[in-house]
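Handout, page 2. Input:
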Amino acid sequence: MQTVSRYLLDQLVIAYINGYHGRNPKVYDRRLTLHRGVNNPITFTFKNEDQKAQDITTKTYELNIIDSESKKSVLSKELINLNTTQATSLTIESDGSSTGTTARATVTNSNVTGSFEVGFFLDGTSISGPVEITNVNSTNNAGTSTILNLKFTQQTIPSETVNVTAGPKGSANCTITDGELLPLDAKFYNFAVREVKSDGSREVTYSDTGYAAAGTIELLDGAYPEFVASREVSSFTATPDNKSLAKLSSEVPAKPGINNNKALHTIAVYTKNFSGAFKVQGTMSNSSNKNEDDWFNITMNGQASATNTFTNSTAVTSFNFTGVYQYVRFTWDNDAGNTGLIDKILYRQ
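Output:
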């Protein structure tokens, strides 16, 4: 038996938001790796020159990915402050007399989603500035409530009941989706994180303690299945034979080598004021000199007839059919007096 390990890892990036004074230099920073075909989550931690996480609850940051050749931004994402715990009706107990006071807070466990941890920072109603959890005690009142010790460093302590979220200090994340990577080539890119100020200006954050602002991203493909564009058929010619209808497309490879006996084929038919008949035909012949007798009609969508009719259609109509064929083609004809057309067909298998 072969045993295969897979690693569930978070891609973590450290961004420095204060100057460097020669302490705790960062020697090595690996590049980020993005994979086409899946969503790619990335977490950022914002630290100062002493490697201490900084409070970012009131700040906004954005990630920019830059094409290293054209120097143009190809993707921009706003980072979301990472909050992992929510609580309603958390009661802060304090006289509210001064800043820098340590206070207690009580919340019923049934009102909490997630779990509080030492070092998490609270954000909520009437709370501004860093509110750090310095101790967590879940044994009060027979285990039905959680007691938090809080440290307020920038404001007086409100003595009231609030709804809060809590998360690790200085952490934000974003997810780069499969769809956002579709237009990008597999290669190396640069990335940078900027703080978005209240006046709309941008301020630098650093990728290391040597004042470098840019990091490196490598976009890879091949690890996961990727989106493949549909084959577009938009050219139709007149056909004098009696096997097809009046208009006929060229033959389209049906890729039998990648299909099995239940191979699914889908088409989207784009019409413009079209009234008439439409058919899909297939062949098992791989000869370059196929004759009309090599082609046969294919029934679609489980219908009894291979002929599909349209009436004054200006819409996109989808069909599907199954089977293994060497080639398929599309044929259509107008009803008497109709001048509409089938504009194009998108085909995938």
